Amino acid sequence: MADNKSLQDCLDAAYYYLSYRPRSEGEIKQWLHKRGFANEVAEKAITRLREQNLSDDLAFARFWKDNRLSFRPKSKRLIEKELRDKKVAPEIIEQVTEDIDDEEIAYKLGSSRMPALAHLDYPDFYRRLSSYLAYRGFGYEVIKRTAALLWQGKKER
Questions:
Q1: Sign of the dihedral defined by the CA atoms of residues 134, 139, 141, 145, in that order
Q2: What is the CATH T-level fold of the domain 2-51, as seen in this structure?
Q3: CA-to-CA separations, 29 to 39, 86, 142, 144, in angstroms, rounded
Q4: Which residue from 63, 150, 64, 67 is spatially nearest to 106, judged by alpha carbons?
Q5: What's the confidence (pLDDT) of residue 154?
Q6: What was the pLDDT predicted at 4?
Q7: How far apart are CA 58 and CA 66, in angstroms?
Q8: Which of 69, 8, 77 has the alpha carbon at shortest distance from 37?
Q9: What is the pLDDT of residues 83-126, one digit of tens each?
Q10: What is the rounded distance in angstroms from the CA atom of residue 22 to the CA atom of residue 124?
Q11: Which of 41, 48, 113, 151 is the residue whose CA sits 20 to 30 A from 74?
């Protein structure tokens, strides 16, 4: 009887945690552990959530990637890191992020910054654009190519 009560309490806590946004199973497990639930109770609750289609790491990883690319674009490397931090399995991360094109994302981000950078000379333009893109996790080569493309496009106007 007490076991069913603790399982129901654990499920209620998990439902509350999931009410804000989707979560990975690792996040749910970690959160339940912080709330003092025993590992076996948390595992049973996660199994029940999986049966109810409320916990699915693949769906969560897709949601996270789509959300990041739509609202806070970042590099593939940073999205992978965020998913690792959220305890998503490496094979799921690889599957979800395989179609991310850093060059395209960096170009879109850089294009959106062009109105603020258009008046600058090349060294200042490059410094500010590279800082902006580096903060979002893009590597040196991607930044260099993106800056060259945007500068050339600016000169052609």
A1: negative
A2: Arc Repressor Mutant, subunit A (1.10.10)
A3: 8, 11, 37, 41
A4: 150
A5: 74
A6: 76
A7: 12
A8: 8
A9: 999 999 999 999 999 999 999 999 999 999 999 998 989 999 99
A10: 41
A11: 151
